[in-house]
Design a protein that fits this description.
The protein is about 65% helix and about 5% strand. By secondary structure, the protein is mainly α.
């Protein structure tokens, strides 16, 4: 390469490549340091070695009769080194969760996502091993993400319409989650394991309540004092069902379940109405206690109501 071509090329690189410009500046400073210490060949001493911390130069011949041109080798890419260091720190942090395989892989793949495609070429052996572990986690995370997405989908539908079939859907989807999935940070995805467990228990309880309602429903006859005990139990079953995180409604229920639920609702409303009447009469009795005539009338009415209920 002639000196006539090197100089224009150097000028272009100086204008268009800031990183090359800084490389030249470092090389010049390093060269001046060598010259000042007498280590440069032909500058008052023998040829010295490259000072520690400087970039080793490459000499390019200038051609016949032309001086040689010193071209420094490009330094390590600082951006690549920064990303690799950040990734390895993420790897170290992830290793603090070895007992939680899902969470460890989650943190490791998140750290790996900060690398560029060609960064691995510059990685040191320890960083290469960490990258290999991150790559091993990637298919595990992909499978886990699919299962978690299935739970998220049915859980969202259940929150919009909390019915028994919807709760059973959530329970079935939650059953597909593995220990790996459950060890991940599911809270960040809107999933709470304890709530899934509670909903599973609620589904089992609701099904048992419906079965008992179905057994009692044929025995209940509205306004028949002989079936009062059945009415009271049906009313209690309905109240227990209402306390569960599942909506009381006929949507998605079988015909027999709908009939059983309707009987329980009817019995509960009848008991509540009866309790209200008794409360009114008891209040009237207390107000009329000083009036012999009024007390007699209230006592008769209260006794008649209680006999009907019994």
């Amino acid at each position: 390469m002639s000196i006539g071509r090197v100089l224009p090329t150097a000028r272009n690189l100086w204008r268009e490549q800031p990183r090359w410009r800084w490389t030249i500046i470092v090389a010049v400073v390093s060269t001046l340091g060598v010259v000042a210490t007498g280590g440069y060949h032909g500058a008052g001493g023998g040829q010295g070695s490259t000072p520690p911390g400087s970039y080793p130069p490459t000499t390019v011949s200038g051609g016949a009769g032309a001086p040689n041109v010193i071209m420094p080798v490009a330094p390590t890419d600082l951006d690549v080194d920064k990303r690799l260091r950040a990734f390895y720190q993420g790897y170290v942090d992830a290793d603090a969760h070895k007992a939680q395989a899902g969470l460890r892989c989650e943190k490791l793949t998140r750290a790996y996502a900060g690398l560029s495609p060609d960064d691995e070429r510059s990685a040191k052996p320890a960083q290469v091993n960490a990258i290999d572990e991150a790559k091993h986690c990637m298919p595990l995370m992909a499978d886990s993400d699919q299962r978690i997405a299935g739970v998220q989908s049915v859980l969202q539908r259940f929150k919009q319409a909390p019915t028994l079939p919807g709760a059973e859907e959530v329970d079935a989807a939650a059953a597909t989650l593995t220990d790996f999935d459950r060890s991940r940070d599911l809270t960040a995805k809107g999933i709470a394991i304890d709530q899934l467990d509670q909903l599973k228990s609620a589904v089992a309880s609701y099904q048992q309540l419906l079965e008992r309602m179905a057994t009692l429903a044929p025995l209940y006859r509205p306004h028949d004092p002989a079936t009062l005990a059945t009415a009271i139990e049906l009313a209690k079953l309905r109240q227990d069902a209402a306390a569960l995180p599942i909506g009381i409604g006929a949507s998605g229920l079988t015909a027999s379940q709908q009939q059983a639920l309707a009987a329980a609702v009817g019995a509960d409303e009848a008991i509540r109405a009866s309790d209200h009447k008794i409360g009114v009469l008891q209040e009237a009795f207390s107000h009329r206690s000083a009036d012999p005539v009024g007390r007699s009338m209230a006592s008769t009415a209260l006794g008649w109501t209680l006999r009907r209920r019994d």
